[in-house]
Amino acid sequence: MIPELKLWSVDGSRGAEPVPQLSQMPTEWELESVLVSNPGMLEPRLQLVGRQTPAAGGWLDLLAVDGDGRLVVYELKRGNLARDAVTQILDYASALDAMTGSELAKHISDRSGEAGIQRIEDFEQWYADTRGGDDLSRLLPPRMVLIGLGVDAAAERMARFVSAGAVDLSVITFHGFRRDGETLLARQMEVSPGDGGQPPTRAPTTAERRRALRNYLERHGYEQLFDHVCSDIRKRLPQQGIWEQPGSKGIGFQLTEPDDSRSWKTYFGVQAGYVGRGVYSVSVLPQGGHWGGDDALGRLGASVHLGKWTHGGHFLSFKSAEEWEQARSAVLEFVDAVIQSRNEHREDDHEDG
Q: What's residue 289's pLDDT?
């Protein structure tokens, strides 16, 4: 049961006068407006990206991205939270979770720039810029936060039951008081994710993975040749339509498809110590020859020894800068062939459109 919160005004003579409590805000819009102007009242490092945006079955009160890059859905009530608020926010969040990354990015971009929310022309690019290169895979599943000036027993019970599992649901109450024409709000976390169970874990960000990879490379003395190989390949890749995926022992360069969708068809990876201590590798997923055709992959295989990659596809390995120089021209020729074919497919798609 949530404890009752009381407030007293104490004067110099030690007299204590109770401050009248508000049972509700005048309107939900007023409460929203306060929070939009002061997002730190919700949590630190929060960036609001939507307000009153349409969703399946209703309107999302507030939509935000938290400091870890997760999407957060806020449902507000000007008075006490009731059980319907729990089902409502689950409905909204599940609708967002069912969207693809591109659908969600468009949903947010198209509805930004209103009612105190900043305008975001390209949410996917904005997210990468503000998240150190992270892609939208970190955005979902969304967190859910219920906000009201209190919560009834049924809603609290349901919220605790849901949050004890894998669902990230919180309940925040703002206890309102009125004194001398001013409204005072006291924030209290009533239900936290993991209450009664295991708290949800957070996946490392792209920036954190990049730092961990750098530490690994430096610790084993891999960084010089690794950086050289990455630079050789990265210079051949386009400036747009590419994102980097750092891993524990290497990095992947992933390109969008000709229709700008994201998949793993066009992928080049560089690893150090993954296939053996002191061994470097360059990998291509099965569809890596997709846009270059079998001829390009065949020419590469005729010039260097290609092994079978553990995740499917092919890889070549080398142990020194000298061995890389021997394979370098064949590898870069293959990269060029893939990029050229990909660009031709992009032009064909645009002409057909």
A: 45
